[in-house]
Every structure is written in structure tokens, then in C-alpha cells.
TrEMBL record:
<dbReference type="InterPro" id="IPR000014">
    <property type="entry name" value="PAS"/>
</dbReference>
<keyword id="KW-0418">Kinase</keyword>
<dbReference type="InterPro" id="IPR011712">
    <property type="entry name" value="Sig_transdc_His_kin_sub3_dim/P"/>
</dbReference>
<dbReference type="InterPro" id="IPR005467">
    <property type="entry name" value="His_kinase_dom"/>
</dbReference>
<keyword id="KW-0812">Transmembrane</keyword>
<feature type="domain" description="Histidine kinase">
    <location>
        <begin position="599"/>
        <end position="793"/>
    </location>
</feature>
<dbReference type="Pfam" id="PF00497">
    <property type="entry name" value="SBP_bac_3"/>
</dbReference>
<dbReference type="InterPro" id="IPR000700">
    <property type="entry name" value="PAS-assoc_C"/>
</dbReference>
<keyword id="KW-0175">Coiled coil</keyword>
<dbReference type="InterPro" id="IPR035965">
    <property type="entry name" value="PAS-like_dom_sf"/>
</dbReference>
<dbReference type="InterPro" id="IPR001638">
    <property type="entry name" value="Solute-binding_3/MltF_N"/>
</dbReference>
<feature type="domain" description="PAS">
    <location>
        <begin position="446"/>
        <end position="523"/>
    </location>
</feature>
<protein>
    <submittedName>
        <fullName>PAS domain S-box-containing protein</fullName>
    </submittedName>
</protein>
<keyword id="KW-0472">Membrane</keyword>
<keyword id="KW-0902">Two-component regulatory system</keyword>
<feature type="coiled-coil region">
    <location>
        <begin position="568"/>
        <end position="595"/>
    </location>
</feature>
<dbReference type="InterPro" id="IPR036890">
    <property type="entry name" value="HATPase_C_sf"/>
</dbReference>
Length: 804
């Protein structure tokens, strides 16, 4: 061959090699391409483990099967990688959780890893091989070893777990790594070692293990995958597309380079290379014509394979959906039947068989009349026609189906027409309503019982309903007792323009609406008493009480009753009138008594005072005239003068007790005077606070409040055991307040009740004044008595006395 021919031969060879090594296009969508550009460079992480990944300290570079594969993917995707290497898988997982890496090659899929990674399809299959001293007996079978030949296995590892589970009779010896496993074989501590193929390719090249060879396969292969971040599903889809685009021969070449044992090549002469070049030239000339067609066939085959894979995935999804639908139908709580036009069952799900008490397939080809006797052939054909033509009227009805044992099954039956391929069916749905009918019967019985009770209640029973918040409140029920109470039937009162409000007396409607509106607005209980008018115009007193209930749906109900309390009200009004008359009589008697006390006090003070004054003057005159005559007479006259003085004081005390003259100076002065007398008598400090300018009070008011003060101070002396007493008189608006408090032992007012005539008398005096009396006391906490009397109204007993 001349030089030109050699040039053309070498050029063709270079073009062929370059074309064969040209990266195949990765089928990415525009969205995937844009995403990849936005997230460049990708951060790749790898665990240093030869031959998958190793770091050259001198050149500061990474190499290995996983490094070459991911670099190849990045080149075909037109992306850049930023590599990081780690010593252990734990460091790699920590970097992933910290968000420092995006993708990692050379991983094995585990249940724990699925929570952190999205794994690609496997790209390398690494078998585990049996290594031992060759014996010439051929391949070693693990099942034939038994427990006589121990195996050295790196532990812990997946292959050790596999051998324990698959071959329980094997005798396994623990080794820390593949090298130590081979060393145990060399030291005859184990018959064979189970080593990963990648480690075999590296270790068997060493002279230490020159006597060993591969004698069999352990049966477990390690699948290597590419892991990506779980929060980037786009990256996982891109990696899967790129892996599918790599030709199988390139993956085989990658495995041959890094995983399989290297072929030792002996030294060869230069003539061999010349002959080899001539041979290659001849082969090149013969293969150039076939290369382009093979490439086209390969691309077409890959496209068809992708399409077939997609179609298989769609079929699997449809098959899964069909299985799920069949499972749902078989385990439905509703019975489903497919029935032919002749009323015979073509299909029945498990729920129907269980409800009707038949075994598997026991319903098929049986007529529906066996389960529903009312479905005669004529009726069935009529239903078939209506369902097929979409006739009017519901195709559902209540039924009592007959079970296999002859018992009845309460059920709701509904029909629906279905056309499937060339056949027509009526789909019959059977729902077990045993519990529903039992509940309905119980409800009807309860309603009947309620109607009977409500009809016999001596009054009107009603229910108000508000379906939703803010909705209109209306009557849902009024008992038949309305006829006896007001003369109107329940239907008349439930009319929209009637109700209870139409019965209320015109003078009481304002109070009725006020109480009802307040209860409805706050969803609270309702209570009202007032007058109503019957159909005949008769006036009656009614008492309405209703209890509010809120349902979980938001509906509010008021269940109530209207009582006729006319007789009780008449008795109550008569009793109130009687009490008012008694109080007026008591006020009149009290006024008469106070006036009598005042009259007696004046007579005692004036008449007895004058007599005592004259008697004192006469005694003094006798003393001046005759005392010197007889010493004994002088002493007797002195004793008489002292008795007259004591009688003077007794007259003043009696007059003050009947009506203190200090009252003529005003209530404030009388309170101060009474407090001073209390202190002088009991040695208990009594603090008094009265206004400077007290409005002018009626004589009855002043006397009444003064008597209340006297009775309160008397109770302090008798029962309180107090150390101090505080009396305050104040004017608040149109009210005069008198407060008497002590720091004594206190008591429970409810326990005393009406047994204390002192408290009853004070309360009656205050009521006659038109005021109120409150007692606040607890044992050990003292007592406070508060009296409030109006200033701007004249009291009845005063006006009556003035008229008298």
C-alpha cells in the first residue's frame, strides 16, 4: 500500500472511532433543559471506595467507575459538576441533610435510603464471587458445601445476610474486609472466600494471592444506582433519561475497565503490530458500509424500546386500576348484581352473597324472584323497559329480600341500565337497611309516645326551631293541648301569621317581645309570665318556660310549655294586696305609736318636770328654814334632794326613750347623740360620718331611720362582741343611705331567717319607708347593715297620718 492509501485508511479509521464515541443525544424536554441550566453546577458527592471512586493525592483528582459514569452523563447533558468526596456513607448522608450535595453515584437502594434519596435505575451489576484454590473439579455449588467447608465473608454485609437466609447449613467465618477474607483462605482457615467482583479484580493482581482463582458465583449481585435529592424530582427524571440514552456497550466497557479483572498482555514484536494494522485496515474497509446502517437500526430499536416500555407502564397502571376497582366492588357494603333480561343473575359481588347468606357463586344464574318474590317476570320486564328507555319515575323501591335460610332482609333496591360490549344488563344495588328501619320504628314509637304525653299535659307544649344562625325562628310543633288552653287548634297557631304572640294581651306585648327577643338573640332559655286572650276573649294568666338546645349542626331548638296560672296568679295578687294592706296597717299603727310616744314624752317631761321642780323648791325652802333646828332633819332633806335629782334624770331618760328631743334638731344630730350614748354605755368606739347639709326629712323618715340605728346598736351590744362600730349617713342622688358596720363575730343571715324579731322589725320599718335593707355578714368577718331610703317620694304612712 502506498502512503496515500495509508492516509485514507487512517482517516477512515479515525472518523469511524470518533463517530462511534460521539455521545448520543439525551431526549430532554424544554422545561427539563431550562431547569438544568438554572441549577448549574450540580454538586456531586462520592464515597471513596476503590474501584468506584478513588482520590489521587499527587494529581488531586478523582477517578473510578462512578466518577467516569457521572462525568459521562454530565457531558451528554451539557452540564457541569462540582465534586466532593467523603470517607464514609454517614458523612455523605450528613452532607445531603445539610443541603451540600445534589447527586451521588454508586449507591445501593435501601428502605432507609428511600426516605432521603430518589434512586435511578441500576447502571452496574456487581456479582459476588467465590474465590479459592482451584482444584480442577469445576464450578463450586454452595448447596453442596454444607457445613464442612467454611466460607470467609466480610461482615456485616448484605451478602452475609443473604447466605444466612438462603443457605442455613453453611459455616460462615467473619472477616473485616475482602483482603482479610482472602488471607483466611491462604491460611487454610476457610475453604473459600465470598468477595465482590470489583475487589477480586483488584486483589487477584497482587502476588500474595497468586494461587487463588474464581471458582463460583455466590448468587447475589449488588446493583449500583445514582441517588438525587428527594426535593428535586426534576433532576431524578433527567438522570433516568440520560441513563437510558447511554448505549449498553458503553456501560459494558465501563464495567470491563474498572470491575472485571485486567487481562495481562505479554510483550509482542513490532511485526505483530504491522500485521494487526493490515488486518484492521481490511476490517475497516469491510465494516464502513455497515456502520451507518447499524447506527440507524440501533436508534430505531432504542426508540421502539422506549415506546414499548411506556406502553407496558400504561398497561400495568390500567391493570392496577382494574384490580383496585374489582377489590372495591367485592368488598363494598352495597350488594351489586348484574342481571340479564330474563332476570337471572350474571354477576354478584361478595357483599350480596354475604347479605343473602349464599356461598361463593351460589347466586349466579338464579332468577331474582328467588330473592324478591314480588319481582315477577311481568314486573321485571316492565322495569327493564323503563330503565332501558329512561322512563319516568324512580327505579328504586323498599323490599324484604329472602335469605337462603328463609329469613327476611330489609333492603332498599335500586336499578340502573348498563350496556357492556354486545350485552345489556340491569345493575341491581341492594342496601341493607335493617338498622335504619329499626331506628325508624323506634323513632315513630318515640314520637307517638311524645304526642301522647304532650296531649295529656295540662297546658300547651311547643317547639321553636332556628335552622341556621341568623335564620328565622318558627314553630315546629304545638301540642293539641292548645285547644283546651286558648280555644285554637295547633294547626291554627302554627300558621305563619299566628303563633303565641297573637294570644298575648295588648298591655303585655312589649314585655313578651322583649323577653322572647333576648332569649332568641342569645340562644338562652326563655321565661315569661303575662296575660293571654282565648278565642272567646277570656283573659288568662300564662307562664311560658322554654329550654334552649344547640345541635351539632348549628340548629337551635327551644322546647317549652305554656301553663295556665290564672288561679295561682289571682291568689298571688290577692296575697300581694293583703300584704300591702297589712303593711299599710302596720305603718299606720307605727305612726300612731310614735305619736303616742311623743305625746307621753312631752307630758312626762312637762308635767312631771314641773312637779319635781316645785318639790325641789319646797325641799330647799324647808332646808333653809328648819335644817339648823335639827341635825337629823338636815340629813333627811339632803337625801330628799338627791332622790329628786335622780327622779329628774329618770324622767329625762324615759322621755328620751319615748322620743329623743334631739330629733327636733335633725337626723344627723340624733345619730351623733345616739353614738355618744352608745360609747358612754359600752366603752366601744363608734365612728360617725354624717353630711353637713342634710336635706330636710319627713318626721316619719327621721324616726324610722333612727329606730333602725337604735335596733342595730342594740344587736351589736347583745350579739356582735365588736371592738369598733362605724356609722355612715350619706346622700346619693335621690337616695339616703345609712350604713352601720362592726368588726364583731358576724353570722349567716340565711341561718337566722325570720327567727330574729329585731331584724324583721328593721326590715319592716325600711319597707314602710319605701326603701331596702341589706345585710352582709360572714362568721368571723363582722356585719354590715345597709339601708337605702328614697328622698323624693312621700311615704304612705306619713300621708295617712296627716290625713287622720
Amino acid at each position: 500500500m502506498n502512503r496515500r492509501a495509508w492516509r485514507w485508511l487512517l482517516l477512515g479509521l479515525w472518523i469511524n472511532i470518533a463517530w462511534a464515541q460521539a455521545p448520543a443525544a439525551v431526549p430532554l424536554t424544554l422545561e427539563q433543559t431550562n431547569w438544568l441550566r438554572e441549577h448549574e453546577p450540580l454538586r456531586a458527592g462520592v464515597v471513596l471506595q476503590a474501584p468506584y471512586a478513588q482520590f489521587d493525592q499527587r494529581q488531586q483528582s478523582l477517578s473510578g467507575a462512578s466518577i467516569d459514569l457521572l462525568n459521562l452523563l454530565a457531558e451528554r447533558l451539557g452540564s457541569r459538576l462540582h465534586w466532593r468526596h467523603f470517607k464514609t456513607h454517614a458523612e455523605l448522608e450528613a452532607a445531603l441533610r445539610a443541603g451540600q450535595i445534589d447527586v451521588a453515584p454508586g449507591l445501593q437502594q435501601t428502605p432507609a435510603g428511600l426516605r432521603r434519596w430518589l434512586f435511578s435505575d441500576p447502571y452496574l451489576r456487581i456479582p459476588h464471587l467465590l474465590v479459592g484454590v482451584p482444584s480442577g473439579a469445576g464450578s463450586v455449588d454452595l448447596e453442596s458445601l454444607g457445613g464442612e467447608a467454611p466460607l470467609a465473608v466480610p461482615m456485616p454485609s448484605a451478602v452475609a445476610d443473604f447466605l444466612r437466609g438462603s443457605y442455613p447449613g453453611l459455616q460462615l467465618r467473619e472477616a473485616n474486609n475482602a483482603r482479610q477474607a482472602l488471607q483466611q483462605v491462604m491460611a487454610q482457615q476457610a475453604a473459600y472466600a465470598v468477595v465482590e467482583a470489583s475487589q477480586v479484580a483488584r486483589l487477584l493482581r497482587e502476588s500474595e494471592f497468586a494461587e487463588l482463582a474464581i471458582v463460583g458465583d455466590a448468587g447475589l449481585s449488588q446493583l449500583l444506582r445514582i441517588g438525587s435529592r428527594r426535593d428535586w424530582p426534576q433532576l431524578a427524571a433527567i438522570i433516568d433519561s440520560a441513563l437510558r440514552a447511554i448505549p449498553a456497550q458503553e456501560l459494558d466497557a465501563l464495567q470491563s475497565r474498572w470491575i472485571e479483572p485486567a487481562v495481562r498482555v505479554s510483550s509482542t514484536s513490532p511485526a505483530f503490530f504491522r500485521n494487526l494494522s493490515l488486518l484492521l485496515g481490511v476490517l475497516l474497509l469491510s465494516s464502513l458500509a455497515l456502520m451507518f446502517s447499524l447506527r440507524r437500526q440501533r436508534d430505531a430499536l432504542e426508540f421502539r424500546l422506549l415506546a414499548a416500555r411506556h406502553e407496558i407502564e400504561l398497561r400495568e397502571a390500567a391493570r392496577d386500576a382494574l384490580r383496585l376497582a374489582q377489590f372495591s366492588i367485592d368488598h363494598s357494603t352495597v350488594g351489586i348484581l348484574w342481571v340479564n333480561w330474563d332476570s337471572r343473575v350474571h354477576y354478584a359481588n361478595r357483599a350480596t352473597e354475604q347479605m343473602l347468606g349464599y356461598g361463593s357463586g351460589g347466586i349466579l344464574q338464579r332468577p331474582l324472584a328467588d330473592f324478591e318474590p314480588s319481582l315477577t317476570m311481568d314486573r321485571w320486564l316492565n322495569l327493564w323497559k323503563r330503565a332501558r328507555q329512561g322512563g319516568q319515575g324512580p327505579l328504586s323501591f323498599a323490599s324484604d329480600c329472602v335469605r337462603a335460610d328463609g329469613s327476611l332482609l330489609p333492603a332498599d333496591v335500586s336499578l340502573s341500565f348498563m350496556r357492556y360490549r354486545e350485552n345489556e344488563y340491569l345493575v341491581v344495588f341492594i342496601t341493607d337497611v335493617t338498622e335504619r328501619r329499626r331506628a325508624l320504628a323506634a323513632l315513630q314509637e318515640s314520637e307517638a309516645r311524645l304526642q301522647g304525653i304532650a296531649a295529656n299535659v295540662p297546658g300547651l307544649v311547643f317547639r321553636l326551631e332556628r335552622p341556621q344562625p341568623g335564620g328565622v325562628v318558627d314553630f315546629a310543633f304545638i301540642s293539641e293541648g292548645a285547644e283546651n288552653l286558648v280555644g285554637y287548634s295547633a294547626g291554627e297557631l302554627m300558621a305563619p301569621d299566628r303563633g303565641l304572640r297573637s294570644l298575648v294581651h295588648p298591655d303585655d306585648r312589649q314585655a313578651y317581645h322583649r323577653s322572647q327577643d333576648a332569649a332568641l338573640a342569645s340562644d338562652q332559655d326563655w321565661h315569661w309570665q303575662g296575660r293571654i286572650l282565648t278565642r272567646s276573649g277570656e283573659q288568662r294568666w300564662a307562664d311560658i318556660k322554654a329550654i334552649a338546645r344547640r345541635l351539632p349542626t348549628g340548629q337551635v331548638l327551644w322546647d317549652g310549655i305554656v301553663w295556665d296560672i290564672s288561679d295561682n296568679k289571682r291568689i298571688e295578687l290577692a296575697l300581694a294586696d293583703s300584704r300591702a294592706q297589712l303593711r299599710e296597717l302596720s305603718a299606720h299603727l307605727e305612726s300612731v305609736r310614735e305619736e303616742e310616744k311623743a305625746r307621753i314624752a312631752r307630758e312626762v317631761h312637762d308635767e312631771l318636770g314641773q312637779v319635781l321642780t316645785v318639790l325641789k323648791l319646797e325641799t330647799s325652802m324647808c332646808e333653809l328654814s328648819y335644817a339648823d333646828l335639827d341635825p337629823g332633819l338636815h340629813e333627811r332633806l339632803g337625801n330628799m334632794k338627791r332622790l329628786i335629782a335622780q327622779l329628774f334624770q329618770l324622767v329625762r331618760d324615759v322621755a328620751s326613750a319615748l322620743r329623743p328631743p334631739i330629733l327636733d334638731a335633725g337626723l344627723a344630730s340624733a345619730i351623733e347623740w345616739q353614738a355618744q350614748r352608745f360609747e358612754a354605755r359600752t366603752q366601744i368606739p363608734c365612728l360617725v360620718e354624717v353630711p353637713d347639709n342634710l336635706p330636710e326629712l319627713a318626721d316619719g323618715q327621721a324616726i324610722g331611720l333612727f329606730r333602725v340605728l337604735q335596733e342595730a346598736l342594740t344587736n351589736v351590744i347583745r350579739h356582735a362582741g365588736a371592738h369598733t362600730v362605724d356609722v355612715r349617713l350619706a346622700v346619693q342622688g335621690a337616695t339616703l343611705n345609712l350604713v352601720i358596720s362592726d368588726d364583731g363575730r358576724g353570722f349567716r343571715p340565711a341561718a337566722v331567717g325570720s327567727s330574729s324579731f329585731g331584724l324583721v322589725g328593721m326590715r319592716e320599718r325600711v319597707l314602710m319607708l319605701g326603701g331596702t335593707l341589706d345585710i352582709d355578714s360572714q362568721p368571723g368577718e363582722g356585719t354590715t347593715l345597709s339601708v337605702r331610703v328614697p328622698l323624693d317620694s312621700e311615704q304612705a304612712f306619713i300621708s295617712e297620718e296627716e290625713q287622720t
